[in-house]
Amino acid sequence: MAPLVAPRFTKRFRRLCQVAAVSGTGRSQQVVDGLLPVAMVYGDGPWREPEDWISAIESLFGLSLSEADVLAARDRAVRAKTMSYNTFRGQYVLSSQAQSATMDQIQSGENLERRAQESWLAEVEHLVSDQSSDALWSCLLAYAGKAFLSHGMDAVKLLDPSAGEFTDLTGGDAPEALLKMALSESGLAGSLLPEISQAIAVFFDGA
Asked: Which of 69, 86, 128, 182 is the most buried (most CB within 10 A)?
C-alpha cells in the first residue's frame, strides 16, 4: 500500500475535530473559546477586531460566528490571561503558554489521527489491498464529514445558525448516497462501494 499521506481537501473537518479536542467539551461557549486560539495558531492575523477572527474561522472551519460571541470569547481569554493586547504589535496575541498548549493539543490530535489511520488500514487491507492508503483515508474522512453535516445538524447549529444551508449539499442523504459522493471525491471507483462500505463499517464498529 502507498505511504500514509494526510489528505488536504478534508482540512475543515479535521480542524473541527481538533477544536473539539482543544476545547475538551461539547458546550457551545467553550467550543467557541477553543476556536479563537486554534485560529490564531493556524492564521497570520492581525488579530485586532472581531471580524479578524470571524473571517479566519469562516475560512478555516466553514463556520460563521457572531461578533458578540467572538467578543465574549476574547474577553474571557483576556481575563484568563491566555490572550493579551500587545501595544507594540498593535494586536492581540496568545500567551506563550496558551500558544504552546494549543499547538501541543493540535499535534496530539494529528498523532492520534495517524495512529488511527495506520491501525484501520492494517485491519481492512484484506478488503481493499489494491487501493491507495491516501485515497482510502480521504474517503473515510469525506464520508464522516458528510455524515456529520447531514445527520449531525443539531451539533453544527450550536456553532453556526446558518448551517441549515448545508442541507442543499447533503439533502439528508442516506449513508449509501453519502458514501458514493465520498468515493467520487476521493478518486475511487463506484464499483468499490461494497468493499469500502465494509471497511468504513470496521472503523466505526471499532471506534
From this structure: 182
Rounded CA gap, 137 and 132, in Å?
Answer: 9
Determine contact, residues 95/81, Cβ cutoff 8 Å. yes
Straight-line distance from the first to the last Cα atom of the chain, in angstroms, rounded to the nearest whole number: 23
Query: What's the rounded Cα separation, in Å, for the pair 4 and 1?
Result: 9
Residue 94 sits at φ, ψ, to 5 deg, of: -80, 150
Using CA atoms, how far apart are residues 196 and 183, in angstroms rounded to an integer? 8
pLDDT in the model for residue 151: 54
Highest mean pLDDT range out of 79-83, 153-157, 175-179? Answer: 79-83
Expressed in percent and rounded to 5, the helix, strand and coil fractions of the chain are 70, 5, 25
> Cell digits for 25?
467539551
Per-chain mean pLDDT for the chain: 77
Within 8 A by CB and 6+ apart from 164, the residues are 153, 157
**How many angstroms separate the CA atoms of 90 and 17, rounded?**
31
Cell output for 179: 458514501
